[in-house]
Amino acid sequence: MARMPALFLSHGAPPLVDDARWVSQLRDLAAGLPRPRAILMASAHWESAPLMLGATEPAPLVYDFGGFERKYYEVTYPAPGAPELATRVEGLMPDTERVARTNRGLDHGAYVPLTVMYPDADIPVLQMSLPTLEPDALLEIGRRLAPLRDEGVLIIGSGFTTHGLPFLRDWRPDAAAPGWSREFDAWAAEALARGAVDELAAFRDRAPGMPYAHPTIEHFAPMFLTLGASDDPERAPEQPIDGFWMGLAKRSFQVA
Questions:
Q1: Which of 34, 78, 119, 188 has the most CB atoms around it within 10 Å of its CB?
Q2: Residue 254, CB-side half-sphere exposure with 13 Å CA sphere
Q3: pLDDT tens digits, one per residue of 151-203
Q4: Which CATH number do you get for residue 25?
Q5: Are 88 and 151 within 8 A, CB to CB?
């Protein structure tokens, strides 16, 4: 069984599927990966402690957004559940880390990119919550999950490299990126290229463009789950997707 990489995706709002460039990038990324046996997804849109595992059988999607066209509320993604993967995740966590299950379906941070990458919805998907937003704790959770990669599981942290929604003034998909978004993205790209995990973890104090790039930090936090699942978090990951959407940095990466 091929060993899977781990991904950090800037996941996009529901209209991502109407952006031809971004759709092409996500499809190319998926086409270059071994086919997963299952997918473990951690999205910025589910913070819950203790660590929670979503529906292990198909459940209705969570349309956790407002103000969009009706068609975005009619999307379905009936991927198989992944009860065996849930049991495996439970077994990888320490005795001190309580894990619970819920019937919560996939939220848009999980299903929107998957509708592009694996449109047939024929790969089992399990979503897990972010039990914390602290980088060091998420790196440790990622390290515990890393053995799943040898079992054909694609681990995805889904967030957004910049997410300063309150500070956007131009909501067109091709809007020029604000200075804070460009500066933060350039800093993140350079830090990733050096494998500077400690610097990335200190982004609240060290990154230019803060706090505008992340007035709340849940969209940057999933990155650390992905980095923790790397063989060597200080090895520079591939960065196959960059650029901006509505001025927000959609930089995404994969680790070996």
A1: 188
A2: 17
A3: 999 999 999 999 999 999 998 989 999 999 999 999 999 999 999 999 999 99
A4: 3.40.830.10
A5: yes
- Cα 26 from Cα 46, distance rounded (Å): 22
* Alpha-carbon span 189 to 176, nearest angstrom: 19
In a domain, 104, yes or no: yes
Burial of 171 (0-12, 13-18, 19+ CB in 10 A): exposed
For 88, the 3-state DSSP assignment is helix
Considering only CA atoms, which of 72, 64, 137 is closest in space to residue 105? 64
Residue 1 is assigned to a structural domain of this protein: no
pLDDT per residue over 139-153, tens digit each?
A: 999 999 999 999 999
Are β-strands 125-130 and 38-47 bridged in parallel, bridged antiparallel, or unpaired? parallel
Query: Given the structure tokens 């998957």, which residue do they identify?
Result: 114
224 within a domain of the structure (yes/no): yes
Q: In this model, does residue 1 exceed pLDDT 80?
A: no
Q: pLDDT confidence of 70, banded at 50, 70, 90?
A: very high
- CA distances (Å), origin 248, targets 33, 161, 178, 184, 244: 26, 7, 8, 10, 5
* Beta strands per DSSP E along the chain: 6-10, 38-47, 51-53, 99-101, 125-130, 153-159, 238-241, 244-245, 248-249, 252-255
**By residue range, what is the domain housing residue 206?**
6-255
Confidence (pTM): 0.96
> Within a domain: residue 175?
yes
- Record the tokens describing residue 178, joined without a space: 């604000």
**Distance between CA atoms of 236 and 157, rounded to whole angstroms?**
17
Average confidence (pLDDT) over 16-33: 95
